[in-house]
Every structure is written in structure tokens, then in C-alpha cells.
Design brief:
This protein has 206 residues and is mainly α. The protein folds into two domains: 20-114, Cytochrome c-like domain (Cytochrome Bc1 Complex, Chain D, domain 2); 125-203, Cytochrome Bc1 Complex, Chain D, domain 2. The chain contains twelve helices and no strands. It has helices at 2-18, 22-31, 34-47, 52-55, 74-86, 92-99, 103-114, 125-138, 140-143, 161-173, 181-187, 192-203. It starts with a helix and ends with a helix. The structure holds heme C (2 copies). Residues 67, 138-139, 141-143, 153-154, 156, 159, 164, 167-168, 178, 180, 182-183, 186-187, 198 line the site of one heme C (HEC).
């Protein structure tokens, strides 16, 4: 039984990696058409009015446990919205809220937040220096040397430190709140003080 569940999980994971959901196709099409992109960003600004309560009007969050969405990669935002909707990623509030968004609104909101200017925060310089070394060794392969990510991997530069710490700890500890095999492997060797160092580095990056 356990083996079956593991095999089914792997199958599912490879599906979500390689299959392009229709909304991701839609996102790409809009990104390739400047007029449609402009219209979608404007529609997304309106459709995200409720999100602004926590994520801020331009995606710069109002509380340390809430992630900044400004400047985040649109495909990543859309994928996380899908994961909340399907229950693969857990957060009682986000899961309920996302269910009411139509596919077009999801695409528009992702494009709107992605188009906004990213932010950054102050950090402890000593921690950040050590964190930079860890990041170069363990993380740049996927998230990029500048931590800006790409279509597949999230931007980490300038993200809120509290949110970064809770996310990394959840991946490492396999709490089930948020699972990703690549991230479980990448964080497996991190000690708590390594997480403090690497997040101090990331939060101050432009
Ligand atoms: C009541 C506050 C609140 C509101 C309103 C809210 N969010 Fe969130 N959102 C959160 C919190 C908290 C998290 C982090 C959950 C976690 O720890 O994984 C989050 C996470 C996210 C993420 C994942 C970001 C990442 O870096 O992985 C996305 C995308 C998102 N929200 C989109 C939205 C959208 C779109 C709306 C509006 C339809 C919205 N949120 C409204 C609190 C909120
Ligand atoms: C093999 C590729 C890979 C490596 C190496 C990797 N990551 Fe990730 N990372 C990912 C993927 C894929 C995701 C999105 C997973 C998901 O959907 O939850 C992610 C997500 C994250 C997130 C959540 C971002 C957000 O907005 O919620 C953080 C934080 C993070 N990674 C930090 C790190 C750190 C720190 C390292 C190095 C110790 C690292 N990653 C190494 C692939 C990688």
C-alpha cells in the first residue's frame, strides 16, 4: 500500500512537472502579445483588490508572514494558485479564497503582480555574508545567481525573511503543508542557523 502511494505520488509529481495546464498555456500566449498583456495587467490590478488586504496593492506585503508577490515570476504565481486550489499546498485561508477565482482572473492576477517592482529589506550583514556562500553552493543551480528565478523557479531576492524561513523549514521537515521533492533534497542538510543565514542574504538582495 505504502509503495503504491509512493508510486502514485511520483507519477503525479512528474505529471505536474511536464504537463502544461491550460492556464499556463494561456499565460504564455498573453505574455507574447503586448496589447493583450497590457490589458491583462490592468484587469489583474482590479481583480486583485481583495488580495491587497494582505499582499499590498502592488504586491509588497503588509505582514512578515505574508509573501511579497511583486516582481515574482508569473508562471510560478499561477502554479502556486493552482496548488492552493487543488489542496497540494495548504493554507486554510488561501485555499478557500483561490477557489472563487476563474481561470482568466488567475492569469490576470499573476501577470499584474509579476509586473510590479520588487522590494527588499534590511538584514544582518554578518549573517548575509555567510548566507551568500551557502546560497552559491546549494541554491543558484535552480534559483539563479541573482536569486531572480525563472519560469520554473521562484524569485527569492527581497522576499520577507519570516516567510522565507517558514517555507524553507517546511520543505526541510516534510510537514505536508508544502511539499516539493527538489526543495526537500536541496534543504535536507541545512541546520536552523544555516536557514537564518541564507534568508538574511536573500531578503536584502535587489
Ligand atoms: C488574509 C490574508 C491574505 C489574503 C487576503 C490573500 N493572501 Fe495570498 N497568502 C497569504 C499568506 C499568509 C500566504 C503564505 C502561506 C504560506 O505560508 O504558505 C499567501 C501566499 C500566497 C501565494 C504564494 C506566494 C509564494 O511566494 O509562493 C500566492 C500566489 C498568493 N498568496 C496569492 C493571493 C491572491 C491572488 C490573493 C487574492 C485573490 C491572495 N493571495 C489573498 C495571505 C493572504
Ligand atoms: C533542484 C532545484 C532547486 C534547488 C537546488 C533549490 N530550489 Fe528552492 N525551489 C525549487 C522549486 C521547484 C520551488 C517551488 C516548489 C513549490 O512549488 O513549492 C522552490 C521554492 C523555494 C522557496 C519558496 C519560495 C516562495 O516564494 O514561496 C524557497 C524559499 C526556496 N526554494 C529556497 C531555496 C534555497 C534557500 C535553496 C538552497 C538551499 C534552494 N531553494 C534550492 C527548486 C530548487
Amino acid at each position: 500500500m505504502r509503495l503504491f502511494v509512493a508510486a502514485a505520488g511520483l507519477l503525479f509529481a512528474s505529471f505536474s512537472l511536464f504537463a502544461q495546464p491550460a492556464t499556463q498555456e494561456r499565460l504564455k500566449a498573453v505574455q507574447g502579445d503586448p496589447a493583450a498583456l497590457k490589458a491583462a495587467v490592468e484587469a489583474g490590478r482590479k481583480a486583485s483588490f481583495f488580495c491587497a488586504n494582505c499582499h499590498g496593492e502592488t504586491g509588497v506585503s503588509k505582514a512578515p508572514e505574508v509573501p511579497n508577490l511583486a516582481g515574482q515570476n508569473a508562471a510560478y504565481l499561477l502554479e502556486q494558485i493552482r496548488k492552493f486550489g487543488s489542496g497540494e499546498r495548504k493554507d486554510a485561508f488561501m485555499q478557500g479564497l483561490i477557489k472563487v477565482l476563474k481561470d482568466d482572473e488567475r492569469v490576470q492576477i499573476a501577470l499584474f503582480f509579476a509586473s510590479q517592482a520588487a522590494t527588499r529589506s534590511r538584514a544582518d550583514a554578518g549573517q548575509a555574508a555567510r548566507g551568500g556562500e551557502l546560497f552559491a553552493k546549494l541554491c543558484t543551480r535552480c534559483h539563479g545567481a541573482d536569486a531572480h528565478g525563472n519560469e520554473q523557479y521562484p524569485r527569492l531576492a527581497g522576499q520577507n525573511i519570516v516567510y522565507l524561513q517558514s517555507s524553507i523549514t517546511r520543505y526541510r521537515d516534510g510537514t505536508g503543508v508544502r511539499n516539493n521533492q527538489l526543495m526537500s533534497i536541496a534543504t535536507a542538510t541545512l541546520k536552523n542557523d544555516d536557514i537564518v543565514a541564507v534568508t538574511n542574504y536573500l531578503t536584502q538582495l535587489p
